[in-house]
UniProtKB/TrEMBL annotation:
Keywords: Metal-binding, Zinc, Zinc-finger
Domain FYVE-type, first and last residues per copy: 35-90
PANTHER family, A to Z: ARRESTIN DOMAIN-CONTAINING PROTEIN D (PTHR39490), ZINC FINGER FYVE DOMAIN-CONTAINING PROTEIN 21 (PTHR39490:SF8)
Family matches, as Gene3D superfamilies: Zinc finger FYVE domain-containing protein 21, C-terminal, Zinc/RING finger domain, C3HC4 (zinc finger)
Source species, domain of life: Eukaryota
Gene (UniProt): Zfyve21
InterPro entries in the cross-refs: FYVE-type_Zinc_Finger (IPR052113), ZFYVE21_C (IPR032031), ZFYVE21_C_sf (IPR038632), Znf_FYVE (IPR000306), Znf_FYVE-rel (IPR017455), Znf_FYVE_PHD (IPR011011), Znf_RING/FYVE/PHD (IPR013083)
Alphabetized Pfam families for the sequence: FYVE, ZFYVE21_C
Any GO molecular function: zinc ion binding
Zinc as UniProt keyword: yes
Protein's UniProt name: ZFY21 protein
């Protein structure tokens, strides 16, 4: 998917040439609060003047003084090339997302092996599941081949085991995924289960499922924007 470098008031961004090719986890740049609508800082109420300048947070678009909007943090969900100015609250969120882009996204793209059951079938198939490099498809390969468009996924339920009434650690052992078939309103369900045999690394599968859980949260947030 071809990309182009664009300059906005917020900074340089490397974005897909076609909007349809954008990552489903991405966020649009927010509109900036007009200067005239923010006479004081929207965090500490400091009044702006010739010395105290106004700064806009690149993530929320609100207007702050330098003290309240001094952090420059990577914001890959908006495709910024360099770290950009963000308010303290948004900077914390963006820093947490950096872990997803630096680590968990790679886990999803590398893939893991699961037994996959389609619909109400009583048969399962051993498949390697991974996220495509452009982040737009969940690719499943075994004797069969499926490509599920991420934006068509409606629900993801992570299955866990190990919970005890008195508390204790749980680990992800599978997931139930529902998605719409393109061109129809039909909803298809798939169940992913980490296998017990030697060909399924359960630790790798658990890490993949944890990354998928985080990806789902970002996906829902993108939809609610």
């Amino acid at each position: 998917d071809a990309k182009k470098l664009v300059r906005s008031p917020s900074g340089l961004r490397m974005v897909p040439e076609h909007r349809a090719a954008r990552s489903p986890f991405g966020l649009d740049e927010p509109p900036w609060v007009p200067d005239k609508e923010a006479p004081p800082c929207m965090q500490c109420d400091t009044k702006f003047d010739f010395i105290t300048r106004k700064h806009h947070c690149r993530r929320c678009g609100k207007c702050f003084c330098d003290k309240c909007c001094s952090k420059k943090v990577p914001l890959p969900r908006m495709c910024f090339v360099d770290p950009v100015r963000q308010c303290a609250e948004c900077a914390l969120v963006s820093l947490k997302e950096t872990e997803f882009y630096d680590k968990q996204l790679k886990v999803l793209m590398n893939g893991a092996t699961f037994f996959v059951t389609l619909g109400t079938s009583d048969k399962s198939e051993l498949m390697v599941c991974r996220l495509s490099n452009n982040q737009r498809y969940l690719v499943l390969d075994g004797d069969s081949h499926y490509e599920i468009e991420i934006i068509q996924i409606s629900t993801v339920q992570i299955l866990t085991e190990g919970f005890t009434p008195g508390g204790g650690n749980t680990r992800a052992v599978g997931m139930i995924l529902q998605y719409k078939v393109p061109g129809s309103e039909e909803v298809t369900q798939m169940k992913f289960t980490a296998g017990e045999d030697f060909s399924c690394n359960k630790k790798l599968s658990a890490a993949w499922l944890a990354a998928m859980h985080k990806a789902t949260k970002l996906l829902y947030e993108s939809r609610d924007q």
